[in-house]
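User: I'm curious whether this sequence folds into something compact or stays loose and floppy. Could you predict its structure so I can see for myself?
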Amino acid sequence: MSKFRKPKSLILLFLAAGILVSCRPKNTKSDAAPTSGTAPVKVFKVEKRRISEKLFSTGTIEARQRITITPDVGGRIARIYVNEGDRVVKGQLLAEMDVEAIKLQLGQAEAALAVARASYENAKTNWERMDRLYKEKAVSDQQFEQARLAHDAAKAQLEQAQAAVNIAKHTLNVSIMRAPFDGVIASKNAEVGDVINPMMGGLSSASGVLTLVDFSRVKIRADLSANDIQRVQKGQSAILRTPSLPGREFKGIVTVVNLAADPQTKKFGIEVMVDNPDLSLRPGTFGEVILEVQTHADAFVVPQKAILENRYVFIALEGRAVRKEVTLGIQNTTMVEITSGLSEGDLVIAEGNFGLEDGTPLEITGEVEQ
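Assistant: Here's the prediction. I'll summarize afterward.
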């Protein structure tokens, strides 16, 4: 059993080592816990900029003019000269009805007019002769009166015949359909040989022969609240954006501002007219109207995300966070005007500002661009 006993010298060695370890200082550099260090933040340099408060609203883009081409008289369509998508100019022949019967009616009316004119000339000559003889006491009152009545009757018949000719010419004219303005054929609603009765067309967009639109300028209607409508006026500039043309903006002008609210929505309608020379804006698509209602040209502005509780910001000063109470001015979706509390050149903390305290050490990792 003696061979398993440990020597006393070895035991004493272990005891001495334990005493040395227990007496070692605890907060040496190698054993100290790492500190949290500085707060990483990004800053925005305060400078004077132009800032605008804007209103946004969406609506449907419509053509400036739209008309259904329909003849004033019923009948069979004889010819259609255009197709969907064709561009046409004012006065261009688009379609015409079968006019053979109308031409025959016109010829008949013109012949009747010639007879009536001859009768009138004869009655006029006879009345002028009777008038001369009556003044010379060569004819009786009865003879003079008969000549006068015959003249008046012939004149009335001439006027009636002339009216019949005018009606026939008008019927012939309205049977030929021409473009009332420059535009594009939006739809072809009938075919050659179809019979058209304009009195039974109803209000359908397909009740006529063709649909013509002019969208060299477009209009878009939008709705605004009672508060916002007070800040919009006729003639005000506007911007139109559409999802179908990302990155493009179209300048427009407010042409209509409704004075009465819609009974259902309680909102006020406006209408914006926009130039569309390349016809890239298409009727029936959605668009966003942007209205600048207030602008300051030289304002101290900071990003919206720099504002905390709508009343203060932190700035970076000598490596630490400094809290600054501020007064806000006009705002838009990304920026806000500071009317007091900041100076030009201040470095406002725009990222990493949540949870900061006055005096927190900072590490500036970059600048925020707006």
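Summary: The chain is about 25% helix and 40% strand. The longest helix spans residues 100-135.
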